[in-house]
Amino acid sequence: MKNEEFLKLKNSIARKDVVKILLYSLVCIIVFSVMVDGIYNDGIANYVYSINKEFYHMCVANKTIILGIVYVIIFSVISFIVIRNTNNYLMEVVLSIDQILKEPEKDIKLSNDLSLLEGKLNKIRIDLITSKNTAKEAEQKKSDLIMYMAHDLKTPLTSVIGYLSLLTQEKEISKELREKYMQIALDKSLRLEELTNQFFEITRYNLHDMPINKNKIDISILIDQLIDECYPMLQERKLNYKIEKPEHLMFYGDGDKLARAFGNLIKNAISYSYENTTIEIMVVETEEKIELVFKNKGDKIPKYKLDKIFDKFYRADESRTSKTGGTGLGLAITKEIIELHDGNIYVKNDDEFIEFHIEFFLI
């Protein structure tokens, strides 16, 4: 709750308490005066006189003082009752917080005077439910992914052991068959290494602890290096590429982290492109910003999936197995790296192309 709203609520309750104390005290004093010093005055006077004449004369002589003391007592008692009832508001709030923690699905109901606080507490309650559900969903996705990958680890490992066992046991194996088995074992070992690296990526992933070390880097050269590294993947998928960029473009950032971010986008484009199409990369510098666009031709992504595309462990194509897809961390890591450089990333998708836009605003 903002300080202004809290002060407004506090002052409102205080004003109501003052009005209650003054009003109740005035009514009680008037009623007391009318009853004791008016309607029942003679009866009370005669009764006191019959009991003790000296006490009666003392009361008559000090009537003003005695009435003053009685009025103060009335005021004090009413003040105590009003303030005690106001303190019940604190108990309501405490019980409501306890209810939020134990039974967040139930609505919070407070006194009318606390309607503003009631709204705030219900918002906190809803936010808590949302956060719990989001955390539970993310943890479930992570658990499912790890379990799925653990199962996938067994497949290449079994193949490696099997082919190495054949090479060891078969003494009279042909050179061609030996080379074939060795190549299969190597391929499965590389796949096993890739899966192991993905496991490490999952277990150490913590976006908020990602450090960056900024230096001057050339974005144009960095893009060229990444394309060279991905060239075998492009060839395997029968993809072409087209790059539009200045010859040199200096930027102050973490080269390793940006290489990881741009590399994730290039690999993502390769994985989700139609065969025999062209991946386009555009780098544009203006006075206000540097913009990078990674564009590929592929299946249209529904809007509900686009909204989650940067979420951890989310994969837009759920039919992809871990053999063809990644962990679902690539785009989440990319987004965090870009934001750590005070940049912005968003995705656009029509019936034909998928585009990832990155913007670095120049100060």
Please give the structural blueprint.
Elements: H1 3-39, H2 41-51, H3 53-61, H4 63-102, H5 115-169, H6 175-203, E1 215-218, H7 219-236, E2 240-244, E3 250-253, H8 255-271, E4 278-285, E5 289-297, H9 303-306, H10 330-340, E6 343-349, E7 353-361
Parallel strand pairs: 2-4
Antiparallel strand pairs: 1-3, 4-5, 5-7, 6-7
Short note summarizing the structure:
By secondary structure, this protein is of the alpha+beta class. The protein folds into three domains: 3-102, no CATH class; 137-204, Helix Hairpins, CATH 1.10.287.130; 212-361, 2-Layer Sandwich (Heat Shock Protein 90), CATH 3.30.565.10. It is built from ten helices and seven strands.
H/E element sequence: HHHHHHEHEEHEEHHEE
Helicity level: 55-70%
Instruction: Using the coordinates above, name the CATH class of the largest domain.
Output: Alpha Beta
Our count of domains comes out at 3
Rg (CA only): 39 Å
Number of alpha- plus pi-helical segments: 10
Indicate the overall shape.
elongated
For the secondary structure, the number of strands is: 7
Q: What is the overall pLDDT average?
A: 81
Tell me which CATH architecture of the largest domain applies here: 2-Layer Sandwich
Proportion in β-strands: 5-15%
> Uncertain runs with pLDDT below 50, 5 residues or more?
318-325
| Main sheet record | 5 strands, mixed
Describe the structure.
With 363 residues, this protein is of the alpha+beta class. The protein has three domains: 3-102, no CATH class; 137-204, Signal transduction histidine kinase, dimerisation/phosphotransfer (DHp) domain (Helix Hairpins); 212-361, 2-Layer Sandwich (Heat Shock Protein 90). It has ten helices and seven strands. The chain has helices at residues 3-39, 41-51, 53-61, 63-102, 115-169, 175-203, 219-236, 255-271, 303-306, 330-340; strands spanning 215-218, 240-244, 250-253, 278-285, 289-297, 343-349, 353-361. The strands form two sheets. Strands 2-4-5-7-6 form a five-stranded mixed beta sheet, covered by helices on one side. The chain has a two-stranded antiparallel sheet with strand order 1-3. It is elongated, with a radius of gyration of 39 Å.
